[in-house]
Amino acid sequence: MCNRCSVVRASPFCFLFILFHFNFFLLVHFSFFFHFFSSFLASRSIFTILQLDGANNNHNRVLRNAANNAIAISRLGLLTASAPSRTAA
Fold this sequence. Notes:
Helices cover 83% and strands 0% of the residues. By secondary structure, it is mostly helical. The protein has one domain (3-82). The mean pLDDT is 64. The chain crosses the membrane at residues 12-37.
């Protein structure tokens, strides 16, 4: 059997191997980008809320608390996305 036949026979496995790793690469990077972008949006919203003139201080405090919660949730998501999985060996 020639080398060309063995290469053709092995190519579907190589293709699946490359496809799997490329999908994993995309999943990791888009997940990181999504969490980073959501954290950025949350920080912009808290910056906008802090600039509000306080005719209604109670309302501004509620908005500030909601924005702080959004930032905390997005940072928690960023930490869990970047943390290595701890599965039992």
